[in-house]
Amino acid sequence: MAVIGILGHGTVGSGVAEVLLRNGNGIEKKTGTVLTIKKIFDRNSFPDLPYSHLFTRDISEVLDDPEIDIVVETMGGLEPAYSYTKRALESGKFVVTSNKELVAEYGPLLQKIAHQHHVEYFYEASVGGGIPIIRPLRQCLAANNIYEITGILNGTTNFILTEMRKKGKDFETALSEAQARGYAERDPSADICGFDAQRKIAILSSIAFGQKVLYTDINAEGISRITKEDMLSAEELGYVIKLVAHATRMGDGIYAMVSPIMLPLSHPLADVEDVFNAVLVRGDAIGDVLFYGRGAGKYPTASAVIGDIIEAANYQPNGNGTAAMQDEVSATVLEPDHFMFLYKFFLRLKTKDAEGFKKEVSASLPDARVHIFKNPLLDGEAGVLTGARSESELQGIRDTLASLDNTITVLSVFKVSE
Amino acid sequence: MAVIGILGHGTVGSGVAEVLLRNGNGIEKKTGTVLTIKKIFDRNSFPDLPYSHLFTRDISEVLDDPEIDIVVETMGGLEPAYSYTKRALESGKFVVTSNKELVAEYGPLLQKIAHQHHVEYFYEASVGGGIPIIRPLRQCLAANNIYEITGILNGTTNFILTEMRKKGKDFETALSEAQARGYAERDPSADICGFDAQRKIAILSSIAFGQKVLYTDINAEGISRITKEDMLSAEELGYVIKLVAHATRMGDGIYAMVSPIMLPLSHPLADVEDVFNAVLVRGDAIGDVLFYGRGAGKYPTASAVIGDIIEAANYQPNGNGTAAMQDEVSATVLEPDHFMFLYKFFLRLKTKDAEGFKKEVSASLPDARVHIFKNPLLDGEAGVLTGARSESELQGIRDTLASLDNTITVLSVFKVSE
Fold first, then answer.
1. Which residue of B has its CA nearest to A325?
2. pLDDT class of B29 with cuts at 50, 70, 90
3. Pairing with A129, which of A12, A334, B189, B284 sits 20 to 30 Å away (CA)?
4. A321 and B302 in contact by Cβ < 8 A?
5. Under 8 Å CB-to-CB from B42, ≥6 apart: which residues?
6. Do B286 and A299 touch (CB under 8 A)?
7. Range A134-295: architecture per CATH
């Protein structure tokens, strides 16, 4: 038996309440745990809901109620979520959250505070919506030396890129569609600039590598510069463009980034479409393992929150033995200029004479491959696929190509994964 | 700190020992748990191994040693694994297993014995090799009313089908290749007849549906009848043939089966190739979630076993709160004749006159679609894709088609998934 207080009755919070009320019997039958919501803190009241009597505008009715064991924080944002979470943990309540901003900023600290008060801070829902990824990383894969995580972690941008690719929409039109469907906020910058994915890969790599990875150390690039012509050119070469979050161990440091990447159609993440998310984990024992599902949304996220609630309800002090996020020392996140992580690069260019361009490239970049586009919408354009290079070498390649006699202009540049 | 005894130093047991020795420090750093192997029970000794001093041929040196907290059973088979497991649990030791035969046959009983002695019986490695699936089902997805599980659960048959499809091999040749690579046993019947997948879907559905599903109640069909012409015909229609294990709730009963199925290329399981496994779970809150990875092999399976060892080492009595397999009442597994689960069916036939055949079909089965194969290897053959039908209606359709003037013979029949 556990008594729950919910902070914030928005999309996720209301999903948690609904699923707990609907599936409470099934949860009790499966896990032997009775979960009861005692209070819901929200600015608004919801008089028409069957559980309208649970609402309060007084935060102390949740945080100061000794009967409440578990606080569900589904408010989002840093404040007041941080203060409320801290108060709850300090009074010995478990906190379950779906708030990735807070976890990425203060997760390790809040986890430390939780442990000092013999409780836990659970955040499965902060990454990948309903997909079980935090707990599998912390528990099931703990035997592994994990050396790489690659994911499509933002459903909104993945929806936009899917719309652009499948329906030939430009970025603005696809973004409007995402907003019309409620996938993107009115201010969509957290998604489209890659900041959401940046926080999520920081959370995942902190767990996987056992070092505190600061999201502010991770280079993030968004999708707003991607054009429908980029999509068409990638398609003609057998690639798709995805917003990929990636983290790899490199010696004692970590290389991490969020960036649009061209993935070959055979890549395990190439098929991940619409608002779906997927995370590919590479470990020394497990090899590759992939988790795929709905990365956002009311009920999927509620599913993850309630999984955490059940764990909290059955938690025994000193009994978790799961990989914690480190608060002490921040990881060395390598600067793009310093690391030796190699990519192929794809450059799309407007050219004068295609065959002449081809000859010039083969003289100046012998390991590059040139493709003259057949699609009439890419008329007069060529694509160059370089050999494997570090990011610091890219500017030189770009300058070389820009200075060729047959080059009119460099239209776009993408990293390419094999 | 936990002290471990391993029963059986075969592929999986030796993988567990190696990974524990190699990654022990990392595991301690991540989880705070020190794991020590004290004894390894095996008929053979391994004098050249760095841990050769750990071996014993006397089972009591493991089962009667009060210092040993956790017994890892990687022997396989029913006996003596069952007796040893029971003895270990009865003396208050945790047991971690990779033995799907034993879990499918006696899992619920052994779990009950474990609970009576305030310990647990862990079996993550019994399904899906290294893929975290049991724990996510039991914990992370416990909020959901799960209504469907579909998986490619046997790596050997998936390898054989992949070889047949990609390299045009016939079944016998692909099987020999699987044996040469060590994927298939000398007696491959457990894999190719579908018995391995049958046990695994019984385990998964027992957890997901909270009812004991007897594997003996599940209809299992293998892959040995599949020909390379079947593969070619599926390919021409945009499908692949996979050995699929499936379980669905139907009212109070469960429909479960293992069978070759034609999947469209867009199906999430269509891309699962070689020895990889994948499990697709459908729940009312989460929607679809997919787990993908290496379903077998020394190190992936060891990864899953050690995940369980870490949980056992940190286990607190009364503190699990995870969905247990039910021992009391067996689920009602519906007979094929009784259920209303509908498939489309695909029939491949040798015909006399293709156009004449087409006309006859459209007269006798108006909702069926006829395809005349273009591939010269399928010369004189036609494929019929029926409308949605129950399995009990299939014989009638087959008889109807067999009796047409332009039919020479029915070559093969497959279920089709959309």
1. B30
2. confident
3. A334
4. no
5. B8, B9, B13, B55, B57
6. yes
7. 2-Layer Sandwich (3.30)
Assess A399–B contact: CB distance below 8 Å, yes or no.
no
Q: Are A225 and A192 in contact (CB under 8 A)?
A: no
Mapped onto helix, strand or coil, the DSSP state of residue A122 is strand
- Which CATH number describes the domain made up of A2-131+300-313? 3.40.50.720
C-alpha neighbours within 13 Å on the C-beta side of residue B74? 31
Residues 107-126 of A with CB under 8 A from B: 124
Residue of B nearest to A131 (CA): B289
Q: At what angle do helices A11-31 and A298-313 cross, to 10 degrees?
A: 50
Domains of chain B, residue spans: 2-127+300-313, 134-295, 342-416
Q: What is the ipTM of this complex?
A: 0.85
Q: Which of A32, A300, A323 minimises the CB distance to B285?
A: A300
Q: Report B:200-259 residues touching A (Cβ under 8 A).
A: 210
Return averaged pLDDT per consecutive 10 residues of chain A, 418 residues in all. 95 95 89 92 93 96 96 95 97 95 92 93 92 89 92 95 95 93 84 93 91 89 95 96 94 90 94 94 94 90 94 70 61 64 89 94 94 94 92 89 95 92
User: What is the dotted CATH code of the domain comprising B2-127+300-313?
Assistant: 3.40.50.720
Do the domains B2-127+300-313 and B134-295 sit in the same CATH topology, yes or no? no
Edge-to-edge strand order for the sheet containing B70-73? B55-56, B35-41, B2-7, B70-73, B94-97, B121-122
Neighbours of A182 (CB within 10 A): 9
The per-residue pLDDT for range B196-251, each reduced to its tens digit, is 999 999 999 998 988 888 899 999 999 999 999 999 999 999 999 999 999 998 87
Which of A200, A212, A358, A415 is flagged as catalytic? A200
Specify whether A200 is catalytic.
Answer: yes
Answer whether A293 sits within 8 Å of B310, measured CB to CB. no
The nearest CA of chain B is from the CA of A239 a distance in Å of 17
